[in-house]
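WARN no homologs supplied; continuing
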Amino acid sequence: MKILWIGPYRDTTGWAQASLSYILAADLVGLNIVCRPIKLNDNKPDLPERIKELESKSTDNIDICIQHCLPHHFIYDNRIKRNICLFVLETEGLGTSNWLQHIKLMPEIWSPSIWQKEILQKYTDKPIHIVPHAFDPIKFALNYEPFPFPHLSGKCVFIWNSEFSQRKNLQALLRAFHTVFDVNSESELIVKTSMLGHSAEQSMEKVKEFCNEIRKGLKTFHNPLLFKPETIITQRLEEQDMYRLYKSAHFIVNISHGEGWNIPLCEAMGLGIIPITTAYGPVGEYCNESNSLIVQHHLDRPFACFDTLQELYTGIDTWSSPNVVDLGNKLKEAYNLWRNNNLTIKQNACKKILDKCSYQQVGNKIKEILQ
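OK structure emitted
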């Protein structure tokens, strides 16, 4: 059984990381896998040598093709015995796109979450298998020294790590954070982000301007110096440095309108960083009251979401609107947990996310489905 994996693993996005991890998980359990990349940006990441070896293998006599890409790129090939598509949804709908027509071309669908499977079952009766994203537990067993930021010492540190887009909803976090904490509080907020098509310097300028506009909009203080300044990081970090940045924080905040999975959240949890998040969508399948601080939300319609494909996140879709007041309450609750040195139970519960998402377990799941 020879498997061709087509995916964006040569990019530097969370989606690319997911694809790379799936390949390594399948390879770990002995599946005969060949990989070929889809390039969606100009970034050139350092790839594991094993990925390069799998790329060098021939595509002759392929039995199974797994296409990990956007649905409008799916192609059915009748020369291959088994055609499989793998993708994620971030809203409860397909917008005005042609995705459904392309999904229906494929005999078999893989989904990382139960949430997505249940949505797709409203549109198609094709078989759908659950294959969660994979993580390397060895990486999370290592010790990572926090970044030596002097201003973080002795503070309760929150981190937000997402692309700078409307869906990721940084606005809600800034509103909540600056409502419950001021310049004199023992708290800090790290904003780790980037903007597609912008340099680190350009991104920094845009994000700073955005943060300043949120402060002005709050109208809490006439003097901007009374607001707690954010620590903004826009340059790309290598994986080990990103883990060091996570270890500089106590809590990671996800206040997104919708996620297909949220790899940064899982990585931080694997390192014992406690989420403050809604339980909407796939996130609710691994974040709960035992390992997270859960923020209330309600369902809403996307509006004016122009930083994505025109046919997605439309007014006929459904996504989550987090409750900013409750987010502020959860930030204060997190601060009190930190101040009272009461983080251990949730930190240990976070690390259990690896129990179902290790390379070995996901690889075995793939092997079971394919055999």
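Residues 200-218 form the longest helix (19 residues).
OK
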